Amino acid sequence: MINIYIGPLLLGLLLGFVLGTRIRDVPQSGLKFTAPVYLVFIIVAFIMAYELGPFPYYIDVPLASGFVAAAVGIILGKLTFGRGTKPQTEN
């Protein structure tokens, strides 16, 4: 039987969502958030979560589920409420 611990998932998702809303595109840097960037981000997040392993004494999945939830939250926060691509003017 697989136990799913909701605490780390909710906390990771909430923290990631808040961080994702703060990400903005800076035209001077030349970095763009396109679909391949999100794909690479998710792949790297899953690899890191596998290497971190589950939280101590948790037997749900062999991943750090809170870390994966935070990565998903970052993407959701960026896509829903992320700062737009309007050029930022400096005064």
From TrEMBL:
This protein's record includes keyword Transmembrane: yes
Membrane spanning residue stretches: 6-23, 30-49, 55-76
Name this polypeptide is given: Energy-converting hydrogenase B subunit J
Domain of life where this protein originates: Archaea
Keywords: Membrane, Transmembrane, Transmembrane helix
